[in-house]
Structure formats: structure tokens, C-alpha cells
Specification:
It is a single chain. The protein contains 13 helices and 19 strands. It is an alpha/beta fold. 38% of the residues are buried.
Length: 386
């Protein structure tokens, strides 16, 4: 609804049909359903205090908002984009929904030109499409203020490419429905600090703990690990959910010992920057050695012939699991498995290289752009062994 329109005026003239109901901070405000990439979606109970914390963290750690700025909802409102509608309401900013009802890079750039001060929340796959469009079409960029990305890994080569094409308009956040958008942030100042000796490593990280939040990388007993060691990412603070709707068992597992157990594997450096290695469920154990798919994917994506890739484990009677890379080729750039094998051998340990390469037209994804590794693993497990 456009401010200043007849419909908007009629809405303002309408008297409230019911009084505002008083609430407490711990009252449930929102049922946020998880994306379900690793199992059945669960209803996360987010309280008014959780959402207030998220809103304040946006202003402290992500971006400033001026009245008249705009949030373009190019991603599903049921998830991150809709959550970020709240700080924009608080700052009297516009909420803009693309007329197409879908993500179209040309439409996004046109809306940013129409609404100066535009911000949007985007999955990494959406950022890549924006970069490709900007490189070929050269749309105006002056109205595009901030691109907040998250929800899935952004590979180092992709964010470096995005910075080269779109400039320093980026902020990365790491969060889950259980701690909405509020675990860590890689702020604009971090992107601008290109002279830092660990700049590339920081770009590959998800930043530092957001305001008021505590982040720990822990062993199986929830004990903190020293910098550089990999373990499960734990978080606690005022943004963490009250629990799962009508699921006390899952709540107890997720929140035991007073920490939210994210199920993600990561490592902290000495400065508190968190690098995610993978979901614990995506870890591949081959011949007794741990292989984090993201490390292999980062290497494969440096080849110009690889547009997208997902590395998963396939059951193997001798090794437990063997590593398989499912690759989407870059149009017009041929690439063979032998080339990719040589690339891996040159950059990572031999035991981490894929034993099989599958070339496909597209990877299975949910409506938010997350690759569904479960589907890939299930399909490979169903194949008859030769």
C-alpha cells in the first residue's frame, strides 16, 4: 500500500477494532518455521524480547536506517527478509515487495533506483545473480545502499567477485531461526579493512559475535576450545528462542547446558572471528578422517568452469564414506573431471579430493536458495553399486 494513496488514507481514518493487548517480553510473538534442509521443519517460538534484540542488533551491528529508506523483500518474507522488516518499521522506512513476486535482478536494481537507500537480505545464490546482471547490464547502483547476505555459505571467490563488481555494500550475518539473524556479523568496516593482514580469512568468516550475544566453539562436552580448533558453534543471549512449539524433546536437545546448540561446525580465531566449516550433519568421515565439504567446494569454485558445486558423502563399504562432487558447469566453459582432480590435488590433501564427479544441470534447492544436500546424499545412496 502506497503512502499518500486513497487506500492508505482510508486505513489511517479507520478506528482500531480492538485495544492494544499488553504483552511481556517472554510472551511468544512469532512462530518461525525452520527451513527443513536437514529434517522436518520445527516451529521456533520467538518472543517479543527476542525480536526486540534482533531489531537493536540490526542498528548496532548491521546497518543504519533513515526514514524513507527502503527494505526490498526479494527473499521469502517468511524468513530473514521478513524479520528484517521489523527494524525498518521501527525507523519509518519503506517496505517494498517486487511486483513480479520473485527474485529478478533487473527488477531489484530498478527498485533500488526508484527507492534510494535500498537494503535487501539475500542468499548467496541471489548475490551471484545480482553480480552477473550488474556485470553485463551495468544498471545504476547509487540507490543500492546495503546487501545483507546469509542463510548459506558464501564462498571466498564469490564475495571477492561481488565486491569488485558492486563495491562495499555488503554486510554478512550468521543466524538461525533459533537465534534470528543474531549470532555473528561481518560488518561494513570489516569489508573496508582491505589492508588487514588476514583480510581474506576474515572475508571467508561470518564475523564476530553480535551485540549482547555470546559465541563459543565447544567440544562434545560443551567445553570451549582454543582458537583455531574446530567444534560445534554454541550461542547464548537475549535473542535465543524460548523453545520449539510443542516439542519439548527437541527443545531440551537444542538448549541444554544453557546454550543454543547450532549443529554447525566452526572455529574462532584469536580476534573472535568465526569461520563456519559445515553443518555437523554434512561432515564426511572417510577412512576415519574428517572432511569438511566446504573446504573442497572452495577449491573447486576457483575453476572458471565451475558455476556451482556441492560436495557430499556416499556410503562406501571400505572407507565408510567416499567424497562426491556434484558440479554445475559454467555455460560455455567446458571442464572435465580430470581437471578438477588435478586442481584438488594441488590445493588440498589427497584424502580430501572427490572420488567421483557428477555433472548436473542444476542443484536441488529450497525456495530460499539453500542447496538440499540431503536430497543429493539420498540419491547417491540409492544408486546400485558397481
Amino acid at each position: 500500500m502506497e503512502p499518500g494513496s486513497a487506500d492508505y488514507a482510508a486505513l489511517l481514518a479507520t478506528e482500531a477494532s480492538a485495544p492494544i493487548h499488553p504483552v511481556a517480553g517472554d510472551d511468544v510473538a512469532w512462530l518461525f518455521y525452520t527451513s527443513g534442509t536437514t529434517g522436518r521443519p520445527k516451529g521456533v517460538m520467538l518472543t517479543h524480547a527476542n525480536l526486540l534484540t534482533m531489531t537493536l542488533c540490526y542498528f548496532a551491528d548491521v546497518d543504519g536506517i533513515a526514514p524513507g529508506d527502503a527494505m526490498v523483500h526479494a527473499a521469502p518474507i517468511s524468513h530473514g527478509s521478513g524479520l528484517y522488516g521489523l527494524p525498518h518499521v521501527a525507523a519509518a522506512a519503506h517496505q517494498v515487495i517486487p511486483e513480479s513476486g520473485q527474485f529478478d535482478p533487473a527488477e531489484i536494481f530498478a527498485l533500488a533506483d526508484r527507492y534510494p537507500g535500498t537494503a535487501l537480505f539475500a542468499a548467496p545464490t541471489m548475490v551471484k545473480r545480482m553480480v552477473d546482471h550488474a556485470r553485463s547490464a551495468h544498471p545504476p547502483l547509487t540507490g543500492l545502499k546495503t546487501v545483507v547476505y546469509g542463510g548459506a555459505p558464501m564462498y571466498l571467490a564469490d564475495i571477492q567477485d561481488a565486491l569488485a563488481v558492486l563495491g562495499q555494500r555488503f554486510v554478512q550475518i550468521y543466524g538461525q531461526g533459533e537465534s534470528p539473524m543474531t549470532i555473528t556479523a561481518l560488518a561494513r568496516r570489516h569489508f573496508g579493512d582491505a589492508s588487514h593482514p588476514r583480510y581474506a580469512q576474515r572475508l571467508a568468516s561470518v564475523g564476530i559475535a553480535q551485540t549482547g550475544m555470546e559465541v563459543r566453539v565447544a567440544d562434545a562436552g560443551d567445553r570451549p576450545l582454543p582458537p583455531g580448533e574446530a567444534g560445534e558453534v554454541l550461542v547464548r543471549g537475549p535473542a535465543v528462542m524460548r523453545g520449539y512449539w510443542q516439542n519439548e524433546e527437541a527443545t531440551a536437545v537444542a538448549l541444554h547446558n544453557g546454550w543454543l546448540h547450532t549443529g554447525d561446525v566452526g572455529a574462532l580465531d584469536a580476534d573472535g572471528f568465526l569461520t563456519l566449516l559445515d553443518r555437523s550433519k554434512d561432515l564426511i568421515i572417510s577412512g576415519g578422517s574428517n572432511v569438511y565439504p566446504r573446504e573442497v567446494e572452495e577449491v573447486l569454485l576457483t575453476h572458471p568452469g565451475v558455476q556451482e558445486v556441492s560436495v557430499v558423502g556416499r556410503p562406501n563399504p571400505e572407507w565408510g564414506e567416499e567424497i562426491v562432487a556434484v558440479v554445475v558447469r559454467t555455460p560455455g566453459t567446458p571442464v572435465a573431471a580430470e581437471e578438477l582432480d588435478r586442481l584438488c590435488l594441488a590445493h588440498i590433501a589427497r584424502y580430501k579430493r572427490p572420488r567421483d564427479y557428477r555433472f548436473v544441470d542444476e542443484l536441488p534447492k529450497n525456495n530460499y536458495g539453500k542447496i538440499l544436500k540431503t536430497e543429493l546424499r539420498d540419491a547417491l545412496a540409492r544408486e546400485p553399486r558397481s
